[in-house]
Amino acid sequence: MKGDRRVVIVICDSLRNDLVTEADAPFLVALAARGTRFAAHKSVFPSTTRASSASIATGCLPARHGLYGNTQALDEGEGLVCRNVGAPDFRDRMRRATGRTLRVPVLAERLRWHNEAAIVCSNVSPGAAYFQDPDGHGTVYHAAGSYGPGMRELDDPASAALKKGIAGDRAMTDRFCADIVEGRAPALALMWLSEPDYTGHHAPLGSPRHREAIRAADRCVRQVFETVRRLDPSGDDILFMAGSDHGMETISESIDITALLVAAGIKQGPRSSDVVVAPQGTSATIYFSDGARGRAPETAAFLTRENWAGRVVAGAELAKVGLPIDTALQVAVAMATDARVNAHGIAGYGAIVANPEDNESKIGFGQHGGLGINEQNPFLIAEGGGFAVRTETRPTSLIDIAPTVLRHLRMDHDDMDGRALPLSA
Environment class of residue 231 by beta-carbon count within 10 Å: exposed (0-12), middle (13-18) or buried (19+)? Predict the structure, then answer.
């Protein structure tokens, strides 16, 4: 890498762009006024944290990188089974079942090619953290287990002690600023906060508890930014980016798609491996065994007739939402959303797909995973690194972050789905 160029990124999990306000996120509002705010920024589909993490890390859509949501069906020798991508062992299961983890390089691997380092500190699920660097090219710190280059396990009590929520994010931020950004100064330092996602899943959107989580995330971003600009006041060398991976909708009801497909005679039984529903919050991806592949059109037609279903895609149409067309995943459904306003003044309601592995009620709280206008509404701000003071209205996406990182570090970035974010109008 030429010179002292670096990139520092902070992700505020699930912070909707329209909730970045002077009242709840005063620093982010001020940051947007001194950098470039990307007003038409979008997530990927499914708009889940784990698929989003892989898209940020690779600059590619799920169809290319191979991680298709928060859950994913794998055939580990006994037929298709839905697995939780968030589990610490999912990477190993995926590698055994498919021969690999992600299908394309992540930023940590690309930096290693140039003898540069990437360090990730994450307070979200193990899957979301580990798919920033699933094969151990850099360093990942997480409560479920930390590792360095070569997948070398690290004894890291500070990470092991972290809990999701405001206090855990604050402790991680203190360590990130002092030890990572200032002390070790890698070419790429990325911190992924659990808030306001953690609170949004357990409290109504816009409630006092949720707004405090937004304010706490805002304070963490400010602390990192102040550290960065103390080290590089001009902003010429260190590019700072703050953003989120998706937004949220308020959940109105839960739909058991698996039970409905069984009742319709499309799926043999609740745990059969012929047709497997992978719940993604406010969407679902549906997998078919070789013998059941012919039922995919019938499944899509069945879903299309349901009033809780929004967009249904199948076969070749999957490419239009960034999913593969040549795997067992042959149908996807994004739940319908509407513009109703909750008791705290936050617009957007939709249904959740029932997950038999998660019995906790989500009704009245926030969720994501689909194509609703609010869950597809993350925020992104870039400051320093040549970005002008302005608002960019051209569409951008999570997949544009990785090529932007590589451009700033003067590395090749033309083999991704995304494109480097524009520096000027």
Answer: middle
Distance CA 273, CA 80 (A): 5
Question: How far, in Å, are 42, 167, 311, 373, 396 from residue 16 at the CA level?
Answer: 10, 21, 21, 10, 15
> Which burial class, exposed, middle or buried, applies to 38 when counting CB atoms under 10 A from its CB (0-12, 13-18, 19+)?
buried
pTM: 0.97
Q: What is the DSSP string of 138-151?
A: SEEE-TT-EEEGGG
Q: Give the sheet arrangement for strand 146-148, strand by strand.
A: 152-154, 146-148, 139-141, 118-122, 188-193, 6-12, 238-243, 380-383, 36-38, 390-392
Long-range contacts of 167-174 (CB under 8 A, 24+ apart): 168/123, 168/194, 169/123, 169/193, 169/194, 169/195, 169/216, 169/217, 169/220, 170/216, 170/219, 170/220, 172/121, 172/123, 173/220, 173/223, 173/224, 174/223
Write the single-letter amino acid at 381.
I
CATH code linked to domain 6-67+102-247+376-408: 3.40.720.10
Residue 264 in tokens: 């319709």
Residue matched to tokens 């409290």: 203
Tokens matching residue 66: 């191979």
- The predicted-structure confidence for 74-106, as pLDDT tens digits, reads as follows 999 999 999 999 999 999 999 999 999 999 999
Give alpha helix (H) positions in 232-313: 257-263, 296-304
Q: Is 293 helix (H, G, I), strand (E, B) or coil?
A: helix
Give the domain ranges of the chain: 6-67+102-247+376-408, 250-367
Amino acid at 95: R
At 296-317, the pLDDT tens digits run 999 999 999 999 999 999 999 9
Contact 410, 237 (CB under 8 A): no
Q: How far apart are CA 161 and CA 141, in angstroms?
A: 11
Residue with tokens 């160029």: 5
Q: Does domain 250-367 have CATH number 3.30.1360?
A: yes
The residue type of 29 is V
Encode 186-204: b = buried (16+ Cβ within 10 Å), e = exposed. bbbbbbbbbbbbbbbbebb
3-state secondary structure of 194: coil
